[in-house]
From TrEMBL:
ADP binds at residues 14, 18, 278, 322, 422, 426. It comes from the Archaea. GO terms for molecular function: ATP binding; glycerol kinase activity. This is Glycerol kinase. Keywords: ATP-binding, Glycerol metabolism, Kinase, Nucleotide-binding, Transferase. GO terms for cellular component: cytosol.
Length: 512
């Protein structure tokens, strides 16, 4: 293996797009990032411009290569990782989106999900997909676009009926991985972890489910082909006449949370990681067994390598963690997220204040689409430092909610949790998390584990790395945090649960 070849990873997230070039040791060689616009047409609606995302993707790939003075043909492969349930429709002929992408956080289909609950269809959906019926997933978003979307407003679609064109395969469906793979290679492909987040894919039979396609009236003709996460056949190559001016294999893709699981080398049953981003996503590898949750977790596909069985995972999806810190900035309680640790330390406690950041409802293990952000316990003596500390504590409490559910479902007592994402640079939060969860927290040297996971998937597929053992040897600890035995967190956690109860079922007619 020459030292002059690399693997690149497109990390397309909720707030921006990053391209990272990794070397054989799994170290970051170069890194470029672009933000994109968050579009809020109505309360509870969240959209992205898929063309802006693609333009930004080209920009960050070009910028990262230029920064390191690397030619595109020195990339042995490209991997893709992405915000998962976000849904895009585009015109097969022009390659242009028909509408804005509907983002995973979007709640416009809440009433449709409540209808599924009333009709008793939730158990069937859970059995086939491993998912709770929720507006979070792609199925109701796709249904809404087919039934309610107004393409003329978007000025990007012909005025013909979108459903008719979808049934002819002229309008294509995809999550963001599919959109990027299509633009990079010209092929309409997704992979198993992203397919498993659509609420249209049977995770046991490993195929699009006819009953679910019928329930949500999604034509099979518009769906992508489903491939392994690490694909020796590759998804295609970049166009030598395109922006890269080189043929680079696109050989791996994983939804962002599964990519972090892979990047954290959680290859064995019982291995667990938590990624702290806009939301937090806690995954535990359960091996070849799809463990059914009795405690409000999702059963999902962890990853699949070419010619091998699917590895499953349990997942706890927490909708708002990092976004709660962004909210502190939005309302001018802080000027910069880096201030939160110092301000939180400046008070001895929250003084009885609890923040439940249910801005877009509550995910696992509560699953309440109508919960809303709540601050309880304030007095005239409450200062902003108390609210800031309570916001950081809410991140750790929500993780404990999921950890307890995960231990109950899996029967595995977790002794160590691997963490990654932007928020784990905050030592105060990592120690707080260790205390509240009662477990060791391990933070790796390379914290871009989401991008690293998709790079590993692509690199394994083309032989850049030989096996999983080689990847395990790359993983190095930056710092470990141990729980403080003197911290009495159980009483505080009980009060947290009381605060959660206050937030539930708030967004009713006239209250949203």
């Amino acid at each position: 293996m020459t030292a002059r070849t690399y693997v690149g990873a497109v990390d397309q997230g909720t707030t921006g797009t990053r391209f990272i070039v990794f070397d054989h040791e799994g170290q970051v060689v170069s890194n470029a990032y672009e933000k994109h616009e968050q579009i809020y047409p109505e309360p509870g609606w969240v959209e992205h411009d898929a063309m802006e995302i693609w333009e930004n993707t080209k920009t960050v790939i070009s910028d990262a290569l230029a920064q390191a003075e690397i030619e595109a043909d020195q990339l042995e492969a490209i991997g893709v990782t992405n915000q998962r349930e976000t849904t895009v429709f585009w015109d097969a002929e022009t390659g242009k989106p028909v509408y804005n992408a509907i983002v995973w956080q979007d709640r416009r289909t809440t009433e449709r999900v409540e209808q599924l609950e009333e009709e008793g269809k939730v158990d069937e959906i859970r059995e086939k997909t491993g998912l709770e019926a929720d507006a979070y997933f792609s199925a109701t978003k796709a249904e809404w676009l087919l039934e309610e979307g107004d393409p003329i407003k978007m000025e990007r679609a012909r005025p013909e009926d979108v459903r008719d064109r979808a049934e002819q395969g002229e309008i294509l469906f995809g999550t963001i991985d599919t959109w990027l793979i299509y633009n990079l290679t010209g092929n309409h492909i997704t992979e198993v972890t992203n397919a498993s987040r659509t609420m249209l894919y049977n995770i046991h039979d490993l195929e699009w489910d006819d009953d679910l396609l019928e329930e949500f009236s999604v034509p099979r003709e518009m769906l992508p082909e489903v491939r392994p996460s690490s694909d020796e056949e590759t998804y295609g190559t970049t166009d030598p006449d395109g922006f890269l001016e080189a043929e680079v294999p696109v050989a791996g893709a994983l939804g962002d949370q599964q990519a972090a699981l892979f990047g954290q080398t959680c290859f064995d049953a019982g291995d667990a990681k938590n990624t702290y981003g806009t939301g937090s996503f806690f995954l535990m590898n359960t091996g070849n067994e799809a463990v059914e949750s009795d405690h409000g977790l999702l059963t999902t596909i962890g990853f699949q390598r070419s010619g091998e069985d699917v590895q499953y995972a349990l997942e706890g999806s927490i909708f708002v963690t990092g976004a709660a810190v962004e909210w502190l900035e939005d309302v001018d309680l802080i000027d910069d997220p880096s201030e939160t640790a110092e301000l939180a330390r400046s008070v001895d406690s929250t003084d009885g204040v609890y923040v439940v950041p249910a801005f877009t409802g509550l995910g696992a293990p509560h699953w309440d689409q109508r919960a809303r952000g709540t601050i309880v316990g304030m007095t005239r003596g409450t200062r902003k430092e108390h609210i800031i500390r309570a916001t950081l504590e809410s991140i750790a409490y929500q993780t404990r909610d999921v950890a307890e559910a995960m231990e109950a479902d899996s029967g595995i007592d977790m002794t160590s949790l691997k963490v990654d994402g932007g928020a784990v640079k905050n030592n105060y939060l990592c120690q707080l998390q260790s205390d509240i969860i009662g477990s060791e927290i391990a933070r790796p040297v390379v914290d871009e584990t989401t991008a690293l996971g998709s790079a590993y998937a692509a690199g394994l597929a083309v032989g850049y790395w030989d096996d999983l053992e080689e990847l395990r040897n790359n993983w190095q600890i930056d710092r470990e945090f141990q729980p403080d035995p003197d911290e009495n967190v159980d009483a505080r956690y009980d009060r947290w649960m009381d605060a959660v109860d206050r937030s539930l079922d708030w967004a009713r007619d006239g209250g949203d």
